[in-house]
Amino acid sequence: MGKLINGKWLDDTQLIEYETQQYQQSDGHFQRGTAAFRSWVTKDGSAGPTGAAGFTAQTGRYHLYAAINCPWAHRTLIYRQLKQLELVVSLSLVKPLRTDHGWVFDASESRFTDDVYGYTALHQLYSKAAADYTGRVTVPVLWDKQEQTIVSTESAEIIRMFNTAFNDITGDTQDFYPAQLANEIDELNNYIYSNLNNGVYQTGFARSQNAYNESVTKVFAALDQLEQRLSSHRYLLGDQLTEADWRLLPTLVRFDVGYFSAFKCNLKALRDYAHLSKYLKDLCSHSGVASTIELDIYRRGYHSVSPLRNPHGIVPLGFESQFLEPLPIQQT
What number of other Cβ atoms are within 10 A of residue 16's Cβ? Predict the structure, then answer.
């Protein structure tokens, strides 16, 4: 997938050569790259919890770069819909398959073009923000068109910006991170990230039987616990939708079409969990959420050619997920 080194893109072959030289020059010590971009958009432009000040919430100033198939970027696409930011924060999608140049755009497909600079690869945007940037090139990216720089590449922080920073512009005052629930949300986020959001990847990329057994057991223990929680709650924290729900959704929608087969998370299918299935259908029924979900892209992406996991690129036909079907009308 490559990496930027001092603003220059190196593909995987070049990167191996570079890192070998770096280790030799540093007597075998690991040399960490520069930190990710971690500033915040705020209502008045004051500094957020991390980063620099100066990023004031304004219509048309910010641009989101995302990938349909990336679960971390999916969080930001959900919030952009829920918080009515479609006309406030513009959007470009990278092509949902990384190449030797990492995340790229495709001028032949209008859906996957860079609408700001017409770049062909996302790493060009990183180099524009910091000519000497060293590090991975990831999505999502929140870009400031006025200052021509990256505000943030941290999805967990971008969704919190979207949650409140633009409220005066949109009039949308939904709060998915209310102060009185902040500690509970943070605790749930940490648990779900460790055991599910990241747990499925630890399972899929395990390189020993013991590592796989440990990770897959952890994934399904978490699903079992969430199933039990949802047997008496509509949402994870009761009747109120919170950030914890929206951070869980990208993993759930990818489970049966991707993680179950490609990552061998196959002790059960998500559809075998009655309460989780009902809960997921509920989440997907909220305005704009279903439009952020593209199951066929997930299915093809997780089953793309991989020398280790799927050398022939065979894409399974099942499962047909049912959570996008409308909820039954409640009789009154």
Answer: 11
Instruction: Indicate the pairing of strand 90-93 with strand 8-10.
Output: unpaired
Cβ neighbours of 314 (radius 10 Å): 9
We report the CATH number of the domain holding residue 82 as: 3.40.30.10
The strand ranges marked E within the chain are 3-5, 8-10, 62-66, 90-93, 141-144, 149-152
* Six token digits for residue 197: 């959001």
25 belongs to a structural domain: yes
Enter the pTM of the model: 0.90
Residue 279, amino acid:
Y
Does residue 311 form part of some domain? no
State how many domains the chain has: 2
Residues 248, 251, 257, 263: what is their CA dihedral angle, to the nearest 10 degrees?
A: -140
**Selection from 212, 195, 322, 194 nearest residue 264 by Cα:** 212
Domain end, chosen from 108, 136, 170, is at: 170
- Which amino acids are annotated catalytic? 70, 201
How does pLDDT run across 3-38, given as a tens digit for each residue? 898 888 988 777 766 555 543 444 433 233 334 799
Range of the domain at 136: 3-170
Domain assignment present for residue 319? The answer is no
Question: Which letter does DSSP use for residue 293 in this model?
Answer: -
Q: Are residues 146 and 229 in the same domain?
A: no
Decide if 328 is inside a domain.
no
Tokens of residue 45, six digits: 């432009």
Nearest residue to 73 (alpha-carbon basis) of 191, 188, 158, 190: 158
- Taking only the tens place, the pLDDT of each residue in 93-129 is 999 988 899 999 999 999 999 999 999 999 999 999 9
